[in-house]
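Please decode residue identities from the backbone states below.
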């Protein structure tokens, strides 16, 4: 399996977690915080590992130093920053425990869900095709192996 296939699989799995978050919100203010909290714990860790792999693959100087790649990666980084900001706000809110406002939590989770979906679609439509077009196969196989070793 190539690293892009692995990343695609992760996008799909994280998309399922995003669906679970939205479903959890429909449970209402009594049950939703617990459901959402569980899904977020898994999602936080999955996003962290996913970004590490992306940094390893797409941050490699053989790719990242090229003009168009730099522009695409700058946009991806801006998206990562916006997502991290929302994750931080959600984390702060969840630390309040029972004092956590369900309405505020729901708004933040829905904002996160939309941004993650757009981010995944953006990477799949812009970054990955560009990477496929410009990569050098022998170097990519070595990157794929290193990235997959990090995952395991």
């Amino acid at each position: 399996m190539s690293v892009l296939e692995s990343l695609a699989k992760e996008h799909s799995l994280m998309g399922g977690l995003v669906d679970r978050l939205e479903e959890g919100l429909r449970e209402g203010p009594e049950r939703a915080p617990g459901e959402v909290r569980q899904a977020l714990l898994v999602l936080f860790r999955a996003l962290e590992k996913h970004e590490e792999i992306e940094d390893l693959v797409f941050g490699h100087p053989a790719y990242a130093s090229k003009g168009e790649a730099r522009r695409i990666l700058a946009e991806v980084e801006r998206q990562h920053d916006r997502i991290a900001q929302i994750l931080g706000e959600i984390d702060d809110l969840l630390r309040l425990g029972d004092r956590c406002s369900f309405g505020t939590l729901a708004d933040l989770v829905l904002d996160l869900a939309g941004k993650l979906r757009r981010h995944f679609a953006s990477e799949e439509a812009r970054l990955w095709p560009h990477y496929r077009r410009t990569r050098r196969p022998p170097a990519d196989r070595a990157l794929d192996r290193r990235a997959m070793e990090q995952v395991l």
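Observation: The CA atoms of residues 45 and 97 lie 20 Å apart.
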